[in-house]
Amino acid sequence: MLGSEITIKQNIHEVVVPNRSESYLQELVERIDQAERTQENEFTHFSDVDMIYWFLYKRKHMNEKDERSERSTISYKRELEQFCTYLITYAAEIGIDIEDLKEGSLFKSLQPRHLLRYQEWLESSSPYVKSGRSYSVVTIERKTTILRMFFSYLYEVGFISSPLTSRMMVARTNSDDRPNRDMVPKDVVRILDAFVKTKNIFMFTLVQTLVTTGLRNEELCTLTVGSVKEMPFGDGYYIEVMGKGRKKRNIPLRDKVVQSIEMFRQLRGLSSIRTANPADPLFTTSSGKAYSPPYLSKVFNREMEKIAPYLEGITLQCSPHVFRHAFAIISHYNNIDVFDIMRSLGHEKIETTMIYLQKSMELDEHASNYWRSETLGNLI
Fold this sequence. Notes:
This protein is mainly α and 380 residues long. The chain has helices at residues 22-37, 48-57, 70-89, 91-94, 106-109, 112-124, 127-130, 137-156, 185-197, 201-213, 217-221, 255-267, 293-306, 320-333, 338-345, 350-364, and strands spanning 228-230, 237-242, 248-253.
């Protein structure tokens, strides 16, 4: 653990922050209470790892659904662990010129120049870059945002005495930096048709479900049989989804999608959604386990490569998220109001939905589409 047990010059393999533990959280609460009784800063008895842990897992809201999502917490944890590991392991290379740790804490010993040097090193000389790759603008923005949030919090609560983020470079993305995820209806049809020709009902069903529901990768992975419910009025089914921020939304299932799901489950040796245990995963791997978001992405990459000969002209990396974009674009082409698309996707802000639709709307609303033919003669 980071703290008095190590010095900046030690070369360790990696820094690991414990996973969520109620007993650990309670221990930290008791330390805060004790500091309060003795009129000390509430984090006086915290190590660096304790601060990371508290930042990740402390309860902030009365309503648990308003807490940071598990996926975001995992991303933050991974980023902060990597930051600490790199800072210690490559201290000299980065330029972390610290002779002695202040109060046994790496974080308390850092100065604004150190975070700036880390940013520069990460982009130019980190192990990932030396392997011949480079971080995307989006990735750099994410890494910068997490570090800014964490060290701003440490300064806000008085664990560190100087604003370490004051010299950090700004990392912002614009629409041109984002990966192209636009897939028009004819592309979706070609992909589905390719899985029909290769008799891959599993991928056919997953793509068909994503395209017609607009589900996120993790939302699809966490679906259970009990998520599928009968329509309260009339025939058919819908799914109850727990989205970001633990916000629920209900999504109707088209009849053909229900048929595909039943075929998927039959080929996997699973019971029908009408008779299966409601707690069972709706979609499973060949081993009978629920997909995890990272594994589902790997499956998509692998299976899309197999049907590449059928997809000439489609150059997108067809991750599960691409088909969420396809849902938005197909909805737009069917003249669905953008606010209805936003609600269907579970977006909080219309600006997020507009990112999905930017190129389609730009083409549809271009001035040349409204030229009158009689003003141009017969040549244009």
